[in-house]
Design brief:
There is one protein chain. It contains three helices and five strands; from the N terminus they run αβββαββα. By secondary structure, it is an alpha+beta fold. It has one domain: HIT family, subunit A. Strands 1-2-3-5-4 form a five-stranded antiparallel sheet. The longest helix has 21 residues. The chain binds adenosine monophosphate.
């Protein structure tokens, strides 16, 4: 069965899209640690990041860097942190999280936004790509 992220990539489930190329896809995390929390995903559905082939791994990092630079310019923060967990969704994804404090990196501190706010955040990041 396809992962929830494959369904997002295929347009079967809605998302706040940030960027896409032929191999990778970025969208806002729906339950964000902080404003602008973004996920970067390879379209190829692989569970664990260490199982990616080296070329896809490096491509994912290159794609995440591009998105992360736009994110850092769009959302006021001390820096954008990058982390990989994968305990909830078994489809490789890199979390890009604008950090003000360590609490933003813990996944225990969550922030909520309206649909209009999510749309405005996504638009602001996209405009800086
Ligand atoms: P993890 O697999 O532990 O790295 O966490 C998966 C992340 O995916 C969590 O931060 C979720 O909030 C996020 N997530 C799960 N479903 C969706 C969705 N439909 N749209 C956006 N983000 C999602």
């Amino acid at each position: 069965m396809p992962s929830i992220f494959t369904k997002i990539i295929n347009g079967e489930i809605p998302c706040y899209k940030i960027a896409e190329d032929d191999q990778f896809f970025a969208f806002l995390d729906i339950n964000p640690n902080a404003k602008g929390h973004t996920l970067c995903v390879p379209k190829k559905e692989v569970d664990k990041i260490m199982d990616l082939d080296a070329e896809t791994y490096m491509g994912l990092m290159r794609f995440a860097r591009k998105v992360g630079r736009a994110l850092e310019s769009a959302v006021p923060c001390k820096r954008v942190g990058m982390t990989v967990i994968g305990l909830e969704v078994p489809h490789v994804h890199v979390h890009l999280i604008p950090l003000q404090t360590m609490a933003n990196a813990t996944f225990q501190h969550k922030e909520s936004f309206t649909e209009a706010e999510f749309m405005a955040i996504a638009e602001s990041i996209r405009a800086r790509l």
